[in-house]
């Protein structure tokens, strides 16, 4: 049996405190950012929507609550504990559109070519691309599975353009994010990775270039909270 990928062990260890830490380190803003991403995913009335690296399925739930039949929504993640957390949330939800959960590998998506209208991802894109040897494979897989005219909607940490804001943002990541995450979760190594990857993640122009190299023809970007986060929309 092949060993789990490096980040897989980490995401199998953090689920019990995952939601709480996210609320704390983003000052509760991650909820509003996900709502904006869900709205972007539903623009144009897509039929087949995937929440990639869904974690506890927060984005999938927001999409399902606002979607209308015959839309279908699925959530995919490689972490079984994360999917268990997602299933618990889904069991209490009464969305008109149900959410199907799939355990799978983002570098080998279990979907046919040109079969998805939208792929959304909330704060998982960084894990798939930052110092990840499979970064290009991940992006190519999303492009392959999307139908022509489909969109890849990414809400992710970003880099403020202002030099002062950028310095403050990096300081916040390396102190507050690390300390709060470690204290609440008890998993210092996981939140050391999180704080470092957020602080050093790519600028919007670098993300856009990565997506274009993967075959996307157009990439739009909308900054959130002074550029500390943002929404990228890549068109196939």
Provide structural commentary.
With 236 residues, the chain is of the alpha/beta class. The protein has one domain: Rossmann fold. Helices cover 49% and strands 21% of the residues. The protein has 10 helices and 7 strands. The chain has a 7-stranded mixed beta sheet with strand order 3-2-1-4-5-7-6, with helices on both faces. The N and C termini lie far apart (36 Å).
Task: Please tag this protein with its features.
alpha/beta, Rossmann fold, 10 helices, 236 residues, seven-stranded mixed sheet, globular, 49% helix
Strand arrangement in the largest pleated sheet:
3-2-1-4-5-7-6
- Give the radius of gyration: 17 Å
SSE topology string: HHHEHEHEEHHEHHHEE
Instruction: Examine the secondary-structure arrangement and name the CATH architecture.
Output: 3-Layer(aba) Sandwich
**Which regions are unreliable across 5 or more consecutive residues at pLDDT < 50?**
none
Choose one word for the global shape.
globular
The CATH topology, please? Rossmann fold
What's the total number of strands?
A: 7
The proportion of residues forming helix, as a percent range, comes to: 40-55%
Major sheet details = 7 strands, mixed
CATH superfamily: Vaccinia Virus protein VP39
Could you report the average pLDDT, rounded to the nearest whole number?
90
